[in-house]
């Protein structure tokens, strides 16, 4: 796997709560960053990006803003921070902006997007990224970073075969860390994705069912017990994919959720805003991978079906 | 099991959508009926009961209304039509009003209330009743009967042992039918209760989760599939209690739900009115009975836990 060139320009596809924040941090640190925008294009082109952050507020009065990928220069690091529900746009968005010697860095929840992206750009050009951050877009070009903020990066390989820690991964880590982003590396992307799913499947899913934040859920004995039961199923799903997560992860995650400030999950925020829920990435794909490994996750599947119904009713979509 | 005396007076404990309707029908047919009331007492004492019914509207300008059981005469038929969540009141409510030669007729959903009642009045004085009716209380002493209306009666025996069709059961049936209520009899109360649970567990439960009526659920492929899966589990629960329901029941119930006018389940109405949900009778007890028979119902259990959380959040009850 080739290293990245000396000069690493970054593109951000999806300048929202995640892409806006991490892209702004990179630009603030001196990197050249090009931002693709949609509804905020005019505002950001004129006024730049405004980041309220628990790490320190800052304003970038001028950013390279684009309304179309065709106008963007090719970049060596293309950060994809779209909602996973928008990934069907990537076959069109990626080719114009990804340099031949560049990589796609997918900052999303869930499982199963990397093989798709690999179909379009080649598996040797895909890095997966997991963000541990509370961040919201609160207005045009206005991002509010509330808590946490670390990123975990891992190479994608065909069929999610572990790729180890590559020099290229360390290059991206160095850039992110120069930008003040705590960044760790994993040799096994699928392991990292399943580990995050252990939290995301119960808490994202149940937050929509219960219309509740993390504190309301963790304080309720039945909600907590249900989250725990779902976590056990997810760990079994991971094992079906050959990824063995320790059972102690569950009590650790429950304890850290107790200590977290009340948090509205991304899925609950999407639901409130009547946006499509990221059900493919967070539910359908993990269910499929587990099933291919011979494991059913009946409660996860039930939650998935419930969320499909709620998502349709919420957005007024006929079944 | 003794027959009932010639003169059968009825008491109605819980003069709401069910008790108000069936009690009014009995009085209209010439039976002596005594109604226990709570919030509607003054109104009903002064103005009687007003029944809008798809079988024909009628008004009873005067009814025997009571605010306390101690003021009621003893009756040979005591119809319990309280919400199951109120059953903790029965040890106090039943003794003053139940004649020595009388029976309790429990018109409720769910499973497991009869053994409790049997503890207080003796198992030989308990009849279970299942109502197939769309009826709402829409104002003080004002009942709106929308559709259906039949009742199924069955004797309770210790441990829900089947009691067959007794002469006493036929006497109550004759009274109900004289009052224009289509009334059938079952030799096996527990079988009847499980059969109704096959519908009530999925549709009552999911109607709260989805904030949806029966038509919205039956038209949505995932909601329908989930109802079907839950029905399979309930049939397994019934089998664990030695009650073998045919699998064809499922497709019959789904087909009849398709044909029903859009219907808000009783549990959804309770939820909307921020009343406690009948979770013990409809979920916890069936789960317990199935478990005692060696069967887990994991999806039913998950739905139960979800509803416990929603019920608490809905009523602002700290966990």
Looking at this protein, list some descriptive labels.
homodimer; 319 residues; alpha/beta; Rossmann fold; N-(1-d-carboxylethyl)-l-norvaline Dehydrogenase, domain 2; 2 domains; ten-stranded mixed sheet; 10 strands; 45% helix
Q: Can you name the CATH architecture of the largest domain in chain A?
A: 3-Layer(aba) Sandwich
SSE run of chain A: EHEHEEEEHEHEEHEHHHHHHH
Tally the structural domains of chain A.
Answer: 2
The most extensive contact between chains is: A-B, 27 and 27 residues
Q: How far apart lie the N and C ends of chain A?
A: 45 Å
Tell me what you see in this structure:
With 319 residues, the first copy, chain A, is α/β, with parallel strands linked by helices. Chain A folds into 2 domains: 10-187, NAD(P)-binding Rossmann-like Domain (Rossmann fold, 3-Layer(aba) Sandwich), CATH 3.40.50.720; 191-315, N-(1-d-carboxylethyl)-l-norvaline Dehydrogenase, domain 2, CATH 1.10.1040.10. The first copy, chain A, has 12 helices and 10 strands. In chain A, strands 1, 2, 3, 4, 5, 6, 7, 8, 9 and 10 form a 10-stranded mixed β-sheet that branches. In chain A, helix 4 links the parallel strand 7 (98-107) and strand 8 (126-139). The first copy, chain A, starts with 9 loop residues before the first strand and ends with a helix.
Secondary structure topology:
Two copies of one chain form a homodimer.
Chain A lengths: L9 E4 L5 H10 L4 E4 L4 H7 L1 E5 L4 E3 L3 E3 L8 E6 L9 H8 E10 L5 H9 L4 E14 L2 E14 L11 H12 L4 E3 L3 H22 L3 H6 L1 H20 L7 H12 L6 H7 L6 H14 L5 H18 L4
Parallel strand pairs in A: 1-2, 1-6, 2-5, 3-9, 6-7, 7-8, 9-10
Antiparallel strand pairs in A: 3-4, 8-9
Helix pairs in contact in A: 6-8, 6-10, 6-12, 8-11, 11-12
């Amino acid at each position: 796997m080739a290293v990245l060139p000396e000069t690493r320009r970054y593109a951000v596809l999806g300048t929202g709560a995640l892409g806006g924040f991490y892209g702004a941090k990179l630009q603030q640190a001196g990197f050249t960053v090009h931002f693709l925008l949609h509804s905020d294009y005019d505002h950001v082109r004129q006024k730049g990006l405004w980041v309220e952050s628990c790490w320190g507020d800052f304003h970038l009065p001028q950013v390279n803003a684009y309304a179309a990928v065709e106008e963007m220069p090719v970049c060596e690091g293309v950060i994809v921070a779209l909602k996973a529900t928008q990934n069907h746009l990537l076959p069109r968005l990626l080719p114009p902006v990804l340099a031949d010697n560049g990589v796609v860095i997918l900052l999303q929840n869930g499982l199963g997007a990397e093989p798709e992206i690999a179909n379009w750009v080649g598996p040797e050009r895909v890095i997966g990224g997991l963000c541990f951050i509370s961040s919201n877009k609160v207005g045009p070009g206005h991002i509010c970073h509330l808590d946490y903020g670390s990123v975990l990066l891992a190479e994608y390989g065909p069929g999610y075969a572990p790729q180890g820690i590559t020099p290229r991964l360390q290059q991206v880590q160095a850039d992110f860390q120069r930008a003040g982003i705590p960044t760790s590396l994993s040799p096994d992307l699928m392991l990292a994705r399943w580990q995050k799913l252990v939290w995301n499947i119960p808490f994202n899913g149940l937050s929509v069912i219960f219309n509740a934040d993390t504190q309301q859920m963790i304080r309720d004995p039945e909600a907590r017990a249900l989250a725990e039961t779902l976590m056990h199923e997810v760990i079994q799903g991971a094992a079906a994919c050959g990824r063995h997560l320790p059972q102690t992860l569950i009590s650790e995650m429950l304890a850290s959720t107790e200590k977290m400030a009340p948090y509205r999950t991304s899925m609950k925020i999407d639901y409130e805003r009547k946006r499509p829920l990221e059900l493919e990435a967070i539910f359908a794909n993990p269910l499929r991978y587990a099933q291919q490994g011979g494991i059913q996750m009946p409660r996860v599947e039930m939650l998935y079906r419930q969320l499909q119904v709620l998502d349709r009713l919420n957005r007024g979509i006929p079944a």
